[in-house]
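User: Hey, quick favor. My workstation is busy. Could you predict this chain's structure for me?
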Amino acid sequence: MGELAYFDMHCHLGFCEDATQAARALAAAGVGAFSNTVTPAEFAEQRVALAGAGNVRTGAGLHPWWIGEYDVAANWDRLFGLVARNRFVGEVGLDLSPRRADTREAQLVALSCIAHACARTGRKVLSVHAVRAVDDVLDVLERADALTVDAGNACIIHWFSGTSDQLTRARRTGCYFSVNPRMLQSKRGRAYLQAIPVDRLLLETDEPASAGASWDATRVRELLEETLTQLAVLRGDDPAQLREQIAQTSRTLLQQ
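Assistant: No problem, here it is.
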């Protein structure tokens, strides 16, 4: 991945019409990616589709929005094994907003299973969804000992939207933060992005947003470049140095 200039550290190539072709188009644009899946079934398909894509890593995921389609209790061992066998895990986490209240307990059970698998086997890179749930996510991961130095796991909070106290806690825990253009649109988001250490910053698009949504590799590169440029101005950093720092952090995380 050394020749790649940018990395989309949270995207969903499984939502593209042809994930294999999408990965090739990203490579041609000089972009690497951490492609997240939303169910174990999708991961099984995408692992095959993206097996030959040297610029893409595919995460084994169970997105909290899709928990209702998955019987966690009946599939605990299967979910544990899925995470244990794969280095890249995502999208996983919690969404404790009111409209997801009916699956709260199932979400917590699923994340607990995932956290214990990460703690047991180690060396995982997790892309984590945490909506109104940063403390809850960190509580689950810490109770399972998934975030200890010995475990060697890297937790990336995708599109951070918590409080300043939660940001401080996540920083102290050693989390990474993947940044998309929408985070730069709010005053609070801009303040957070000034506070995150440079070696914990990553770029993301979270695109495509859904199956069948428009997506273009050239536009992905443009979004990453635009986000990087705005970050550099906001933080007072040299753009070239910031780009290389973020790219190097991404390369390190995406090593097999």
